[in-house]
Design brief:
258 residues, alpha/beta, 7 strands, binds NADP nicotinamide-adenine-dinucleotide phosphate
Length: 258
Protein backbone atom coordinates (compact mmCIF):
# COMPACT_ATOMS: atom_id res chain seq x y z
CA UNK A 1 0.00 0.00 0.00
CA UNK A 2 1.16 3.56 -0.67
CA UNK A 3 2.76 5.13 2.39
CA UNK A 4 0.29 8.06 2.69
CA UNK A 5 -2.84 6.37 1.34
CA UNK A 6 -5.96 8.29 2.35
CA UNK A 7 -4.04 11.19 3.95
CA UNK A 8 -4.44 14.89 3.22
CA UNK A 9 -1.34 17.09 3.40
CA UNK A 10 -0.95 20.86 3.34
CA UNK A 11 2.49 22.09 2.25
CA UNK A 12 3.65 25.71 2.36
CA UNK A 13 6.24 27.09 -0.07
CA UNK A 14 5.04 24.20 -2.23
CA UNK A 15 6.17 25.51 -5.60
CA UNK A 16 9.80 25.95 -4.50
CA UNK A 17 12.57 23.36 -4.77
CA UNK A 18 11.99 21.29 -1.63
CA UNK A 19 8.24 22.01 -1.31
CA UNK A 20 7.53 20.80 -4.84
CA UNK A 21 9.57 17.62 -4.33
CA UNK A 22 7.62 16.93 -1.11
CA UNK A 23 4.28 17.63 -2.82
CA UNK A 24 5.08 15.30 -5.74
CA UNK A 25 6.36 12.50 -3.50
CA UNK A 26 3.41 12.73 -1.10
CA UNK A 27 0.96 12.54 -4.04
CA UNK A 28 2.88 9.61 -5.49
CA UNK A 29 2.50 7.90 -2.09
CA UNK A 30 -1.28 8.26 -2.11
CA UNK A 31 -1.87 11.61 -0.36
CA UNK A 32 -3.99 14.42 -1.64
CA UNK A 33 -1.84 17.53 -1.44
CA UNK A 34 -2.94 21.10 -0.87
CA UNK A 35 -0.14 23.40 -1.98
CA UNK A 36 0.31 27.01 -0.92
CA UNK A 37 2.87 29.58 -2.03
CA UNK A 38 3.05 33.18 -3.20
CA UNK A 39 3.87 32.24 -6.82
CA UNK A 40 0.54 31.40 -8.52
CA UNK A 41 1.98 30.48 -11.93
CA UNK A 42 4.30 27.93 -10.34
CA UNK A 43 1.43 26.55 -8.23
CA UNK A 44 -0.74 26.10 -11.35
CA UNK A 45 2.07 24.22 -13.08
CA UNK A 46 2.52 22.03 -10.00
CA UNK A 47 -1.18 21.08 -9.93
CA UNK A 48 -1.01 20.28 -13.67
CA UNK A 49 2.03 18.06 -13.08
CA UNK A 50 0.61 16.22 -10.07
CA UNK A 51 -2.96 16.05 -11.36
CA UNK A 52 -6.06 17.97 -10.21
CA UNK A 53 -7.57 14.79 -8.72
CA UNK A 54 -4.68 14.56 -6.24
CA UNK A 55 -3.80 18.25 -5.72
CA UNK A 56 -5.14 21.76 -5.29
CA UNK A 57 -3.60 25.11 -4.46
CA UNK A 58 -4.14 28.48 -2.82
CA UNK A 59 -2.00 31.58 -3.08
CA UNK A 60 -1.07 32.34 0.52
CA UNK A 61 1.57 34.45 2.23
CA UNK A 62 2.64 32.60 5.39
CA UNK A 63 3.25 35.90 7.21
CA UNK A 64 -0.48 36.73 7.11
CA UNK A 65 -2.83 35.16 9.66
CA UNK A 66 -5.82 35.30 7.29
CA UNK A 67 -3.86 33.48 4.55
CA UNK A 68 -2.91 30.65 6.92
CA UNK A 69 -6.46 30.36 8.24
CA UNK A 70 -7.85 30.52 4.68
CA UNK A 71 -5.44 27.83 3.40
CA UNK A 72 -6.43 25.37 6.11
CA UNK A 73 -10.12 26.05 5.47
CA UNK A 74 -9.69 25.71 1.69
CA UNK A 75 -7.79 22.43 2.19
CA UNK A 76 -10.52 21.01 4.45
CA UNK A 77 -13.20 22.16 1.98
CA UNK A 78 -11.33 20.59 -0.96
CA UNK A 79 -10.28 17.29 0.59
CA UNK A 80 -12.45 16.80 3.69
CA UNK A 81 -9.84 17.31 6.42
CA UNK A 82 -6.16 17.65 7.23
CA UNK A 83 -3.73 14.95 8.45
CA UNK A 84 -0.28 16.33 7.64
CA UNK A 85 1.10 19.87 7.72
CA UNK A 86 4.54 20.68 6.29
CA UNK A 87 5.80 24.17 7.23
CA UNK A 88 8.34 24.53 4.45
CA UNK A 89 8.17 28.13 3.16
CA UNK A 90 11.34 30.02 3.97
CA UNK A 91 13.73 32.68 2.73
CA UNK A 92 17.48 33.05 3.06
CA UNK A 93 17.84 36.80 3.65
CA UNK A 94 21.22 38.46 3.20
CA UNK A 95 24.81 37.27 3.60
CA UNK A 96 26.32 40.02 5.77
CA UNK A 97 27.93 40.18 9.21
CA UNK A 98 25.59 41.34 11.99
CA UNK A 99 27.10 44.83 12.08
CA UNK A 100 26.12 45.53 8.46
CA UNK A 101 23.08 43.21 8.18
CA UNK A 102 20.07 45.24 6.90
CA UNK A 103 17.38 45.54 9.60
CA UNK A 104 14.47 45.25 7.17
CA UNK A 105 15.92 41.98 5.83
CA UNK A 106 16.31 40.68 9.39
CA UNK A 107 12.67 41.48 10.09
CA UNK A 108 11.48 39.87 6.83
CA UNK A 109 13.41 36.65 7.47
CA UNK A 110 11.97 36.37 10.98
CA UNK A 111 8.47 37.14 9.63
CA UNK A 112 8.53 34.40 6.99
CA UNK A 113 10.64 31.77 8.73
CA UNK A 114 9.36 32.11 12.32
CA UNK A 115 6.04 33.97 12.41
CA UNK A 116 5.02 32.09 9.25
CA UNK A 117 5.63 28.74 10.93
CA UNK A 118 3.89 29.82 14.15
CA UNK A 119 0.82 30.97 12.21
CA UNK A 120 0.81 27.74 10.24
CA UNK A 121 0.82 25.73 13.48
CA UNK A 122 -1.90 27.93 14.96
CA UNK A 123 -4.39 27.06 12.21
CA UNK A 124 -3.24 23.56 11.20
CA UNK A 125 -3.27 22.06 14.73
CA UNK A 126 -7.06 22.35 15.31
CA UNK A 127 -7.79 20.86 11.86
CA UNK A 128 -5.44 17.91 12.43
CA UNK A 129 -6.87 17.40 15.94
CA UNK A 130 -10.34 17.27 14.37
CA UNK A 131 -9.17 14.21 12.38
CA UNK A 132 -8.03 12.48 15.58
CA UNK A 133 -4.32 13.20 15.09
CA UNK A 134 -1.61 13.42 12.47
CA UNK A 135 1.87 14.69 11.75
CA UNK A 136 3.51 18.10 11.42
CA UNK A 137 6.95 18.57 9.86
CA UNK A 138 8.80 21.88 10.05
CA UNK A 139 11.67 22.38 7.59
CA UNK A 140 14.42 23.90 9.73
CA UNK A 141 18.08 23.57 8.65
CA UNK A 142 21.52 22.53 9.78
CA UNK A 143 21.63 26.28 10.48
CA UNK A 144 19.14 25.49 13.27
CA UNK A 145 21.85 23.71 15.26
CA UNK A 146 25.03 25.67 14.43
CA UNK A 147 26.05 29.28 13.90
CA UNK A 148 27.07 30.42 10.43
CA UNK A 149 28.92 33.71 9.86
CA UNK A 150 26.93 36.08 7.63
CA UNK A 151 23.61 34.32 8.20
CA UNK A 152 22.46 35.79 11.53
CA UNK A 153 18.78 36.20 10.64
CA UNK A 154 18.53 32.82 8.90
CA UNK A 155 20.38 31.02 11.71
CA UNK A 156 18.24 32.71 14.37
CA UNK A 157 15.07 31.79 12.50
CA UNK A 158 16.04 28.14 12.02
CA UNK A 159 17.00 27.82 15.71
CA UNK A 160 13.68 29.46 16.65
CA UNK A 161 11.52 26.94 14.80
CA UNK A 162 13.17 24.10 16.72
CA UNK A 163 11.78 25.74 19.87
CA UNK A 164 8.37 26.02 18.23
CA UNK A 165 8.56 22.36 17.16
CA UNK A 166 9.44 21.16 20.69
CA UNK A 167 6.70 23.27 22.25
CA UNK A 168 4.08 22.22 19.71
CA UNK A 169 5.06 18.54 20.18
CA UNK A 170 4.42 18.84 23.93
CA UNK A 171 1.22 20.85 23.49
CA UNK A 172 -0.33 18.45 20.98
CA UNK A 173 0.82 14.96 22.06
CA UNK A 174 -2.50 14.45 23.89
CA UNK A 175 -4.26 15.07 20.58
CA UNK A 176 -2.12 12.38 18.89
CA UNK A 177 -0.29 14.96 16.81
CA UNK A 178 3.44 14.44 16.27
CA UNK A 179 5.70 17.40 15.47
CA UNK A 180 9.25 17.11 14.12
CA UNK A 181 11.88 19.16 12.31
CA UNK A 182 13.80 18.18 9.20
CA UNK A 183 17.20 19.89 9.20
CA UNK A 184 18.90 19.81 5.81
CA UNK A 185 22.40 20.94 4.94
CA UNK A 186 22.76 22.60 1.52
CA UNK A 187 20.18 21.40 -1.02
CA UNK A 188 20.22 21.88 -4.82
CA UNK A 189 17.56 24.60 -5.11
CA UNK A 190 17.19 28.27 -6.00
CA UNK A 191 18.04 29.17 -2.40
CA UNK A 192 21.60 27.82 -2.61
CA UNK A 193 22.15 29.54 -6.00
CA UNK A 194 21.16 32.81 -4.31
CA UNK A 195 23.40 32.17 -1.28
CA UNK A 196 26.37 31.22 -3.48
CA UNK A 197 25.99 34.42 -5.52
CA UNK A 198 25.67 36.59 -2.38
CA UNK A 199 28.68 34.84 -0.80
CA UNK A 200 30.62 35.58 -4.02
CA UNK A 201 29.85 39.28 -3.51
CA UNK A 202 27.21 39.30 -6.25
CA UNK A 203 29.61 37.93 -8.87
CA UNK A 204 27.65 35.13 -10.59
CA UNK A 205 30.76 33.86 -12.39
CA UNK A 206 32.52 33.33 -9.04
CA UNK A 207 29.54 31.55 -7.46
CA UNK A 208 30.58 28.14 -8.87
CA UNK A 209 33.80 28.46 -6.89
CA UNK A 210 31.81 29.24 -3.74
CA UNK A 211 29.66 26.17 -4.34
CA UNK A 212 32.73 24.00 -4.65
CA UNK A 213 34.09 25.42 -1.36
CA UNK A 214 30.77 24.67 0.36
CA UNK A 215 30.82 21.11 -1.04
CA UNK A 216 34.33 20.50 0.26
CA UNK A 217 33.03 21.10 3.82
CA UNK A 218 30.45 18.30 3.45
CA UNK A 219 31.77 14.78 4.12
CA UNK A 220 29.67 13.36 1.23
CA UNK A 221 31.14 16.18 -0.95
CA UNK A 222 27.83 17.23 -2.51
CA UNK A 223 24.56 18.99 -1.75
CA UNK A 224 21.39 17.00 -1.08
CA UNK A 225 18.74 16.73 -3.78
CA UNK A 226 15.25 18.04 -2.94
CA UNK A 227 14.01 14.45 -3.37
CA UNK A 228 16.33 13.18 -0.62
CA UNK A 229 14.84 15.77 1.76
CA UNK A 230 11.35 14.79 0.59
CA UNK A 231 11.96 11.12 1.49
CA UNK A 232 12.89 12.00 5.10
CA UNK A 233 9.84 14.27 5.31
CA UNK A 234 7.68 11.43 3.96
CA UNK A 235 8.89 9.09 6.70
CA UNK A 236 8.10 11.66 9.42
CA UNK A 237 4.70 12.45 7.86
CA UNK A 238 3.73 8.78 7.59
CA UNK A 239 2.56 6.37 10.29
CA UNK A 240 5.94 4.59 9.96
CA UNK A 241 7.31 7.20 12.40
CA UNK A 242 4.40 6.84 14.84
CA UNK A 243 6.58 6.98 18.01
CA UNK A 244 8.79 9.90 16.90
CA UNK A 245 7.90 13.40 18.07
CA UNK A 246 9.65 16.54 19.32
CA UNK A 247 12.90 15.80 17.48
CA UNK A 248 15.28 17.31 14.98
CA UNK A 249 16.32 15.11 12.04
CA UNK A 250 19.51 16.14 10.28
CA UNK A 251 20.01 15.34 6.60
CA UNK A 252 23.38 16.96 6.00
CA UNK A 253 25.75 14.60 4.22
CA UNK A 254 27.63 14.11 7.50
CA UNK A 255 28.29 17.81 8.27
CA UNK A 256 27.41 17.42 11.95
CA UNK A 257 29.33 14.18 12.45
CA UNK A 258 32.60 16.05 13.03
P1 LIG B 1 12.97 27.87 -2.52
O1 LIG B 1 13.17 27.03 -3.75
O2 LIG B 1 13.27 29.30 -2.57
O3 LIG B 1 11.47 27.61 -2.01
C1 LIG B 1 10.88 28.37 -0.99
C2 LIG B 1 9.46 28.65 -1.41
O4 LIG B 1 8.83 29.42 -0.39
C3 LIG B 1 9.39 29.44 -2.71
O5 LIG B 1 8.45 28.87 -3.59
C4 LIG B 1 8.95 30.81 -2.23
O6 LIG B 1 8.21 31.55 -3.19
C5 LIG B 1 8.10 30.46 -1.03
N1 LIG B 1 7.90 31.61 -0.17
C6 LIG B 1 8.76 32.62 0.11
N2 LIG B 1 8.18 33.52 0.92
C7 LIG B 1 6.92 33.06 1.17
C8 LIG B 1 5.82 33.57 1.91
N3 LIG B 1 5.90 34.72 2.58
N4 LIG B 1 4.68 32.84 1.94
C9 LIG B 1 4.58 31.70 1.23
N5 LIG B 1 5.59 31.17 0.50
C10 LIG B 1 6.74 31.86 0.46
O7 LIG B 1 13.85 27.25 -1.34
P2 LIG B 1 14.01 25.75 -0.82
O8 LIG B 1 15.45 25.46 -0.84
O9 LIG B 1 13.06 24.83 -1.47
O10 LIG B 1 13.61 25.98 0.71
C11 LIG B 1 12.51 25.35 1.35
C12 LIG B 1 12.75 25.31 2.85
O11 LIG B 1 13.92 24.52 3.11
C13 LIG B 1 13.04 26.68 3.46
O12 LIG B 1 12.42 26.78 4.73
C14 LIG B 1 14.55 26.69 3.62
O13 LIG B 1 14.99 27.56 4.63
C15 LIG B 1 14.80 25.23 3.96
N6 LIG B 1 16.17 24.79 3.72
C16 LIG B 1 16.72 24.91 2.49
C17 LIG B 1 18.04 24.51 2.30
C18 LIG B 1 18.72 24.64 0.97
O14 LIG B 1 19.95 24.47 0.91
N7 LIG B 1 18.04 24.87 -0.13
C19 LIG B 1 18.77 23.98 3.37
C20 LIG B 1 18.16 23.87 4.62
C21 LIG B 1 16.84 24.28 4.78
P3 LIG B 1 8.98 32.52 -4.24
O15 LIG B 1 9.96 31.65 -4.96
O16 LIG B 1 7.89 33.03 -5.08
O17 LIG B 1 9.66 33.55 -3.39
Amino acid sequence: MARLQGKVALITGASGGIGLAISKLFAQEGARVFMTDIDEDALKKAVEAIGPDRSAYAVADVTKAEDNEGSVKACVDAFGGLDIFVANAGIEGAVQPIVSYPMDTFEKVLAVNVKGVWLGLKYAIPAIAQRGGGSIVIISSVAGVIGSPGFSAYVASKHAVIGLMRTAALETADQKIRVNCVNPGPVETRMMRSIETMAAGGDEAASAGVKSQFEQRIPLKRYATPEEVAYLTLFLASDESSYITGQIHLIDGGMRAG
